[in-house]
Design brief:
single chain, 371 residues, mainly alpha, two-stranded antiparallel sheet, 16 helices, 77% helix, globular
């Protein structure tokens, strides 16, 4: 027996090797527990969203409203509750769930693609680009954009927002890309500049609008679910189905890119093709969310960051958990927005700014202390 074979292994290495399966199992349990609690939290938030509002249904009358919707109760109060449930609360809840999930997933994709926890669709100007295209469609729908609106119908707004987000993303990648690598500092600065240009264009369009259009555009740019309807739900449905079908195929891409582009290439991932797919999915998520509810910031940055702290960077857990937590947070923000000053209603963007801005500042300070 050689001397190397006779020597015992170091205790630290032995204990590390012995502990690693336990650590992995513990992390898996934490991740699945997060998925379970997120799903239960979303269910509770959805029930609260259906039951809480300035008028109509309450927690006590929600069961009778559901019974009337399912079995056609003809009592006057039951009919009124059914109308509130089906025409107001239910489409608003579904739309809020989609918007929150889409923004959170878009943030998780961007953070994984750029390998930076501070990446966010709103911070780099994607939401502003989508908002500019959507505002132009709203304001010019009776004028030079009439052909576009007539051709696409209820899909004109989400498709316009998607194209605006996609064009903004391509511009950012073209500006920040250098020799196959993405310069994060350049990306953030370019995003700020593009967002400023988009906001200036939105202001110009608003200046040329009449009083009614100006009020609608102002509320829309602050983010709101006030105009939720089944038409909007149906308009967002194809985008939701596309995202749900495409996201499982992005897990390997995102997990590979976390190691670096060179390492991802050696793992057999077509890096450039992966970037195109991820950019397209981000544009779909942000564009459809902005078209449905306007500009709502901070969901895409704080939700993936929170999930990553608990469950780790594995996108098999990060993507679905971000979708669940994002939907839950947006529903809670919407409940606060419609009840805080009732019967008046605050824009959700204001609520999310009060929640997200302190969290973002905490992230910046923590990151600065670690450097």
């Amino acid at each position: 027996m050689s001397r190397s074979e006779a020597l015992p292994r170091p205790a630290a290495a032995t204990s590390r090797k012995r502990r690693s399966p336990d650590v992995r199992v513990g992390r898996d349990r934490t991740a699945y527990f997060l998925l379970l609690t997120s799903g239960l939290g979303l269910a509770a938030a959805a029930i609260a969203s259906l039951a809480i509002g300035p008028t109509g249904i309450s927690f006590e009358s929600l069961p009778s409203a559901i019974q009337a919707a399912l079995f056609g109760n003809t009592e006057s109060e039951a009919v009124q509750n059914r109308l509130v449930l089906l025409d107001l609360r239910l489409p608003r809840t579904l739309l809020g769930m989609f918007v929150g999930a889409a923004l959170a997933v878009a943030g998780a994709i961007m953070q994984g693609m750029f390998r930076n926890p501070l990446a966010d669709p709103a911070l780099v100007g994607l939401s502003s680009g989508a908002a500019l295209a959507a505002v132009a469609t709203i304001a010019l729908g009776d004028g030079i954009a009439r052909i576009w609106v007539d051709a696409l119908g209820i899909y004109a707004l989400p498709v316009s927002a998607f194209l605006g987000c996609l064009i903004t993303t391509i511009l950012l990648l073209g500006i920040a890309g250098r020799k196959g690598q993405l310069m994060i500092a350049t990306l953030l600065l370019a995003g700020i500049a593009i967002a400023a240009l988009a906001q200036a264009a939105i202001g110009l369009i608003a200046y040329a609008s009449d009083d009614r259009e100006l009020r609608d555009l102002t509320l829309w740019t602050l983010g709101s679910l006030t105009g939720a309807s089944w038409d909007k739900v149906l308009a967002c449905l194809p985008f939701a189905v596309l995202l749900a079908a495409a996201l499982p195929g992005t897990v390997r891409m995102l997990n590979g890119l976390l190691l670096g582009e060179a390492e991802a290439f050696h793992l057999g991932i077509n890096v450039e093709r992966a970037k195109i797919i991820l950019v397209g999915l981000t544009a779909i998520a942000v564009g459809s969310a902005v078209a449905a509810a306007g500009v709502i910031g901070f969901v895409g940055i704080i939700v993936p960051h929170f999930v990553r702290l608990i469950a780790g960077p594995d996108h098999r857990i990060l993507l679905p958990a971000s979708a669940l937590v994002g939907a839950t947070i947006l529903l809670i923000a919407d409940i606060v927005a419609r009840t805080l000053l009732q019967p008046a209603e605050l824009p959700i963007g204001i609520i999310m700014a009060f929640i997200g801005a302190p969290v973002f500042l905490h992230m910046l300070l923590r990151r600065a202390r670690m450097m």
